[in-house]
Amino acid sequence: MRFKPFSDLLDVPLRNGLTKPKKIRGEGIKMVNMGELFKHPRIDNVPMDRAPLTDKELAISLLQKGDLLFARQSLVREGAGKCSIFLDDKEPVCFESHLIRCRLNHNDYNPLFYFYYFDSPLGKQAMDTIIEQGAGAAGIRGSDLANLQVPVYSIDFQNAVATILDGLERKIQLNHQINQTLEKMAQTLFKSWFVDFEPVKAKVAALEAGGSEEDALLAAMETVSGKTADQLATLSIEQSERHAELRATAELFPSAMQDSELNEIPEGWESGYLSDICDFQNGYAFKSKDWSDSGFPVVKIGSVKPAFVDTQSCSYVQEETVAGLERFELYGGDLLIGMTGYPGETGLVPITENRMFLNQRVGRLKPKQYYQKALLYCNARDSAFKQYVEGQAHGSAQANVSGKAISQYPLTIPIDSIVQRFSELIEPLLQQKLILHSESSSLSSTRDILLPKLLSGELTLPDVNDEAHAEPQDVAHFHDVDQIIPAPNLTDSMVIKKAKKQSADTQQTHRPTLRLMFWEKVLDAFSNCSSSLYNNVRPSKIHWLSMDSGIKGIAYHLIFDKNEIGVGLCLQKNEEEANNYVYERLNEQKNEIEASYGYPLVWWQLNCRLAFRLQHTRDIDSYDRANWPEMIDWMVTHMTKLENALHVPLKAINQHFNDVKARRRQNALKLSSGNE
């Protein structure tokens, strides 16, 4: 690896930007400021402030494609020397005085390669050597940047590396775009149904105009779908099932409004509070001595960011610290809210391999029913909720809000059938957001790992893992949601269509993640039912989930395969005599067990009577998230029935084994006494 002063790579000397006071800004040439640099690592047609320029200023301060911009100053050391790359704009763009422009010789040096270098841990480490820390800010000098030693490689190598890293970056950006679109679609439907009550008001207007009930239903269908009457007529012919779904959705809405404490709301709905649809949980008060440099991450106030929790900014505790704190453990998809500093900020816990825990002054909003999660999420992400929480916050040094105040947020509570339909439509979008965010995190890690290894020679270009070339996560699992929720605009529709077109079959790769997400929802549903079997079980990434029945070697299990789900009991005691006893006792009562359960069971005896299983399965497309609410209901209902049907037989079997143990213990004591 060879090094040169950074100035040797430049086509023209580096220069600082223009000083333009705020009072003269507003019109003129677009100008990149510190805000754009820190918000957009890749500056490409982004909105920004404007400033008037003279002809001389125009000649020396316009940006060209591939120019690198560096922050001269920052309030924090990590921000000084921050690098962004200017990619393009539809009109001329200049830059302000707090930035340094570096224009490379494109014949020998690829700007994108050096952008990724300065954005990598290697480049940041090099930049840190020239940062000067002042009393109120940190900064770099242009002269020091010019003299900074940077690695140089052949242009072919630079181009190849830049292409790989840029491909990863574009996939990350596409995922981000899709997630923004999904969020917009969810909030659009939420506002239409539960804030503006548009389907209900469409029915009311149709009836007040002298229309029939069928006219009112058609008006609601038009409002819900964003389609005209003619388009709906075409849909009824070309996609009759979708038309029937849309009609069934519109039928759920009432045809009248009623007075309430929240002004007019749809007839049959109720006015209530956030506490009516969710439980609020405060985090655990970890002590200062608990913190560690590694271990399990703990989500603190500063980690709760809009949309997703930032797991990179978490603090850590050791395993022994969290012993007994299982109720504070977090799972992917949990909705958290900040209570201090930035009260009302909400974000989802991303999917992660690590166990995570909840710190004090961060709250978890847990839906009372699993089908209320989408409604809860959209309420908490609505700007009105954040404004309410900010208004409830108090404190001179830092704004603080209580869990009680958050729980008293007033809202409209629809009837369950509409909440469930909303969940069927929105929950797949939220799950897709989690998967895409997870994939982006994986791609980011791949990008950050690749460059240092390529530069050091630890990896050569042919060795780069295929993961660098993976297509974006499939977004086809929307249950044709655009038949119900019109895409916000053409651009958003194109983003989704582009992702669908580019997506390869990555289902195999994401099955473990899919299973983890499903089991989290199942366990959430079990926590709200009479069965206590799964109270202390953690979700897993395998296709089954087991819970000890209370008898060693005998476990209840849930099944989640691609085309079926099931409930059952599995015995594998590895003792033929014991196994035979259990099988014979249960088989003797087969008719009574199946009668109590309500369905016939499949009885299997395997491995020369060293394993035995009974189960009940149902065929269904398990990987279609639109089926998940129905699947979870089925699992909870049938596992509860199975547990009740087997309670008495297993209790008798357990008593038998306890008696056998007791006799063996007595015989051993007698033998021991005789030997003495």
Automatic annotation (TrEMBL):
GO MF annotations, alphabetized: DNA binding
Residues annotated as domain DUF4268: 514-646
Keywords, sorted A to Z: DNA-binding, Restriction system
Biological process according to GO: DNA restriction-modification system
Record keyword ATP-binding present: no
Lineage: superkingdom: Bacteria
Positions of the Type I restriction modification DNA specificity domain: 63-184, 266-431
DNA-binding as UniProt keyword: yes
Family: Belongs to the type-I restriction system S methylase family.
Name by which UniProt lists this protein: DUF4268 domain-containing protein
Organism classification: Bacteria, Pseudomonadati, Pseudomonadota, Gammaproteobacteria, Oceanospirillales
